[in-house]
Amino acid sequence: MQINRYIDHTILKPTTTLDDIKTLCMEAVEYDFAAVCVPPPFVQLARTFTGSTSVKVATVVGFPFGYSAIEAKVAETVLAIVDGADELDMVANLIAIRNQDWDYLEKEIATILPLIRNKQKVIKVIIESGILLEEEIIKCCELYGRYAVDFVKTSTGYAEKGATVAAVQLMRQHLPPNVQIKASGGIRNFAFARELVAAGANRLGCSSSVAIMKETNTSL
After folding, report:
1. Which 3 state secondary structure label does DSSP give 90?
2. Which residues are annotated as catalytic?
3. Class of 3-219 per CATH?
């Protein structure tokens, strides 16, 4: 298993520095990770550091709580694309999910998805599976599966519970084959990363990516 190609090497803390971004990108290039995921103000810088390598640049929209207005998420999406982002990890409106306002959630994705498709970018919709009921996760999978988003993502990493094998398995059962899964939140070792991939995850959001890679030499 080439676990490196599953990893989005991530730093999203509000105190992120320029040096943090440089280190993140250099590590991503060294280990050939799938992408770096950085705060929106650092997209252009990350693009400079990753250059012409295969490492994609991802950023977040509506992060971390998802309750930004649709118009705000549109503005964030447009700016991220202008700045050079390849992939956008958008937090779904979690308030709408908990209040069963599926019409709002459909309007949100129907508004934002064309912007991303028009520029041939990738969208990952974060549903924060750790704080949802099973039936809410299933409804999210049905909605975002119908819109054929690129990925449904488990977590922001900011909730009390991150990715779980059970959540990934449930999502895989209820998503169409063309919609991939990104697991994130609390992935700190190779064993757990491998479990999540076996459960159906296609991408892993990790801040402990280098430690995971160092483990692979002794775990394979």
Report:
1. strand
2. 89, 153, 182
3. alpha beta
